[in-house]
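Retro notes
What went well: the complex prediction finally ran end to end.
Inputs used:
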Amino acid sequence: MSDNSVGTKQFVSFYDIKTKYNGLLSWLLTTDHKRIGLMYLVTMGVWFSIGLLIALLMRLEMLSMGETLISAKHYNAAFTLHGVIMVFLFIIPGIPAVLGNFFLPIQIGAGDVSFPRINLFSYHLYILGGLLALGSVIYGVFTDSLMDTGWTFYAPYSMQTGAKVAIPLLAAFFLGFSSILTGINFLTTVHRMRMKGMTMFKMPLFTWSLYSTAWIQVIATPVVGITIVLVLMEYLFDGIGIFDPSKGGDPVLFQHMFWIYSHPAVYVMVLPAFGVTSDIISTFSRREIFGYKVMAFSTLSIAGIGYMVWAHHMFTSGMSDTARQAFSFFTYLVAVPTGVKIFNWVATLWRGSIKLAPPMWMVLSFLFLFTIGGLTGMPLGALSTDMHLHDTYYVVGHFHYVILGGIVPMFIAGMLYWFPKMFNKMCNEKTSNYLVLLYFIGVNLTYFPMFIMGYMGMPRRYFDYLPEYQTYHILATVGSWILIGSIFGFIALFIYTVRKGKTLSDINPWGSLTLEWTIPSPPPLLNFVEEPELTHGPYDYPDYSDKEAKH
Amino acid sequence: MSTLEHASEHHHDNSAAHGYGDNNELYVHEFRDDYGSKLGMWFFLFTEVLLFGGLFVAYFFFRVNSPEGFQNAAAHLDIMPGAINTVILLTSSLTMAYAIVSIQRGKKVLSNWYLGATIAFGFWFLINKYFEWSHKIHLDLYPGSERILNEMPDGEGVFFTLYYMMTGLHTLHVIVGMIVIAFIMVSVSTENINKNRYIKMENAGLYWHLVDLIWIFLFPLFYLLH
């Protein structure tokens, strides 16, 4: 790690630098955005693994008919836990907290985020939320009162179930607060910390996506915060009735307030993945990203329109036809900028000189999988078909195609792409490629059968099923083994490479043009050894391709 | 606005934030971006508005659903304590503003007196609130009470739920604001906040004004609309 040098000056990487604290405390009390990003990575890795194991358990139960492995009650607890962990502890903080924390300041030429201490505080809140969630699980196991509401906490059921929902609700509240603070931090950073010459439209698209995501976090999260407070109050004080109809409340109001946050949260998850895609696809096609400004604006407009589509989760809940038509319209509208993105990525590939490195393989599978995920959302946005498909496995298939076809692969691709910068080591190419292939097969095998059985009428969240669905459930369960195997394979590959991988000498192994590839790997404490200079845009590949070819 | 721009010109020095000296030792200039701090505070206030916004949405939703119950219930609130609290909070915003002007002019002691006055007004607000709430509870006016269950079937219960929730959350914000201002007072005494560096006090002021402003909306919605 010490043979890096830029110019004549030597420096110490952010791993080796002496700080006020030593050992573990030098991590837990650091304000360095890179260390915070890596702490998120490790914590999230643990939560993600737990969530995956719960999913594995559920798929095993569904392998054969009847109660085989876990009871109906425990199945309910399992899908609740799986949802809460995956949504709140993994996929919402996900890419922004890990790759965003690490690379946002570097991509705009800054030494750190605007509020480094608040950044650390966000992480501590995230840990607190995680511990509360864990505590409620342990408590639930010992008292046999695991939460069974699903991750959506729908009122009034969440107040009537025997489980103690106060603790997980509090956990969700803290996690939301953590998310808000990260959002505020990133917004201010993008507005105030850009280096000289880095105008908004010279920012890499990954930074653009983090910026839009931060807006959604700031706009949407407080609403779920207050919703959680209301549910908590109603749960704790008998007389209060905001959502419980028997006390004069309205359960549909809960659904509105919940989805006002939780639908935009989908874009909190997916926009950063789009940003990673843009950066990778341009680098490995050696071509300027097609329609840079359109890409930036489409990111913003997804964030904007995405705020107005929430009630498409509630088409069957009781709303006026006018409201349903309006929300259906906006749902279709938000597909337009998303479609624009897909076309622009494909157009970027066109006549590019494509280099099929592992991150690029992952992006290509993403394009395929995410298109399926997006297109299968269309029937759910249409009023008539949604009546049929609502609450079936079709919905489960759809959003898992979006998440495991859109977000998780780009998280992995981003890790493969930035791994050399973060650790100065390179993941084995052959192993990575095989894992990508397994991943691709796994996603399709697990989730495609769900569309078919959902269309046939298999309801979601059931622990048992009728014989006609068995073939599809067996396929999905076998798929889940492949999928989970490949994800654990990636985790093992990352750990192995960090520990045993060979140190690189090249600070820019992919020949990328964004700023993070001009600094040493791993970066020094405040990222830039010398004042960064902006000599070209983030995607000026045709002009700089000759220069880069030497690499 | 002029102070804002002034501050940003002189204190936003991103480029010279750090570097490496002749012996390759890392040196870090103190990083300071007052404009950025204020921007971050505004973003935070925006989330606060949205937090209360959820409650306001619930209020209007139930008001439209049961207008008569809301009118009937609102008649049970006393305008006088509410009005006094409005005046108290508005005056406390004034003293907060004076505190900032004083520190800008280097009058440290005076600034702390104004901050102290702001906290005192906060206490006065809380005392009023305490008596108001306990009087309401004494009259059996709280969600789930016998009186509301038996005599007020048209959404009065929801009105009182929202009344306690919204003024309660607001009171929580008043308390947080008072704690923040107390810390600011300590910083003024230790000269961490001084004539040239008062962004923390300005941010505390922004927060306090927002808390004030939310009350300005709560007061008519609960006390006057009947």
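What we learned: The first helix of chain A runs from residue 25 to 28.
What to try next: split runs per interface for comparison.
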